[in-house]
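not sure who needs this but someone in the group chat was asking about Nuclease from Hyphomicrobium denitrificans 1NES1 so here u go. i didnt clean anything up, its just raw.
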Amino acid sequence: MAALLALAAATAFFGRGHWPYGMRSGSSDPFPAEVSGWGRPIDGDSLWVGRNEVRLKGIDAPEGRQTCQRNGAAWRCGDAARDALQSMIGRDDVTCSVSERDKYGRLLAACRAGDRNLNAGMVAAGMAVAYGSYWREEADAKASHRGIWKSEFQMPRQWREENSDAQPR
């Protein structure tokens, strides 16, 4: 009987979206319209917002282990993209307007930290490429040789395909 009560309580708790930090409830689950809280970057285009894993919609940043070439030398552009996102967040809370879940269960969203649009900001800084949105910001970053645009790099999507172990968790 006690085991049945514990199972019922766990089902009710987790059924309301109270998943332990880092767990996913699956891509078919409903999603909140907005999430907000402390933001912690995972890489240049995804972050934890509270207990929610969020993917910045409309952009694609170099992966954590990805390197780019500048003046014949490799630099860790994936790490630099994550650091750029952390700098944009600063000490502000992050608020994200969620539009859907991706196939990995992450929330796809447009996010802000203070008055900064993180999605547009990453592309404008040259630390992510446009992926369905933010073409103007990308053109400006490319023309100004900002971020990855001042180096030779492989598009993040292509890099992931060639490094299949780099797919999202």
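also Confidence is low (pLDDT under 50) at residues 3-27. if thats useful
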